Amino acid sequence: MRKDWDTYFMDIAYMVSTRSRCPRRHVGAVLVQGKKLLGTAYNGAPMGVPDCEEAGCMIAEEYELKIIDGREEMVKKQRCVRTIHAEQNLLLFTDRNDREGSIVYVTDQPCWTCANMLANSGVVEIVYHRPYPKDSEKVITMMEHKGITFRHLAGYQPPNDTVMSVSN
Hints:
Layout: H1 5-17, E1 28-33, E2 36-42, H2 52-55, E3 59-68, E4 71-80, H3 86-92, H4 96-99, E5 103-108, H5 112-119, E6 125-130, H6 136-146, E7 149-152
Parallel strand pairs: 5-6, 6-7
Antiparallel strand pairs: 1-2, 1-5, 3-4
Helix pairs in contact: 5-6
């Protein structure tokens, strides 16, 4: 049976994610214009720099004030700052003209920083599979404000041997 386009392009994003050497999360992203694949990227250290597998993760802790059940709470987030995110690499290695009106398929819901970058990149739609609850609400709100279609492929099943267990 022939796969639908969402499944086809998300499968490719998961295959791309297998190039990542991040021990915490493998993320892949693809840029699509019409039905044409224009670029792929995954998360990792800059080219020529030791990655997390070789040099260890560089974890930075951040705190964010959130309202949870009507109360203000400080929420701690941990992020690896050695790694360039898949979405960032995709934007670095594709042309602005190619991004105008295009779709990004990404294995994981973009974080706040990547969502900001994608919001200014010219893409009109972002399709993701795994949720990222730490930034979800504010990312969804921003995408609605920008008029960018933001879709979660909830029932999607990645190809065998492409998924690692995710640590937050």
